[in-house]
């Protein structure tokens, strides 16, 4: 009688865990930068503006990333390009200090994209390796 199949890998590899923390950290950085930029550091209008609401869509993927949902990592790699585009436009067209903040936004967007893309890649690799190991263990000896 064969033993039941062992569960797939429960503990993520260190690279997967690192990319998850990097994704969450860069997303939090984008949220904090957007709020500080539009309310305090270089607002469009003195005293802040409603442009600070641009960070609201970033709060939705934060929940999914904190819960380690693969689907969220996938779609945040698409959402981040909107903020990257804003950063490129404002880095070129705004005056200091706003253009420097836009450059920071660009860097955080690239970091978020790369971290999420690598998280997806390495997590699938780990799942594939765990499934192969499980299949090899379940194979009857001949």
TrEMBL record:
This is DUF2069 domain-containing protein. Keywords: Membrane, Transmembrane, Transmembrane helix. The chain crosses the membrane at residues 21-42, 48-66, 75-93, 99-120. It comes from the Bacteria. The lineage of its organism: Bacteria, Pseudomonadati, Pseudomonadota, Betaproteobacteria, Burkholderiales. Pfam families: DUF2069.
């Amino acid at each position: 009688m064969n033993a039941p199949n062992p569960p797939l890998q429960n503990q993520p590899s260190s690279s997967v865990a690192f990319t998850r923390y990097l994704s969450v950290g860069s997303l939090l950085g984008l949220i904090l930068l957007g709020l500080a930029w539009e309310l305090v550091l270089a607002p469009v209008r003195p005293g802040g503006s409603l442009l600070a609401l641009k960070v609201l869509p970033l709060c939705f993927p934060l929940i999914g990333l904190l819960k380690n949902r693969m689907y969220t990592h996938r779609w945040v790699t698409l959402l981040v390009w909107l903020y990257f585009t804003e950063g490129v436009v404002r880095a070129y067209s705004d005056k200091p200090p706003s253009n420097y903040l836009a450059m920071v936004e660009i860097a955080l967007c690239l970091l978020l994209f790369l971290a999420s893309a690598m998280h997806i890649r390495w997590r699938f690799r780990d799942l594939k390796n765990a499934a192969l190991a499980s299949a090899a263990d379940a194979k009857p000896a001949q």
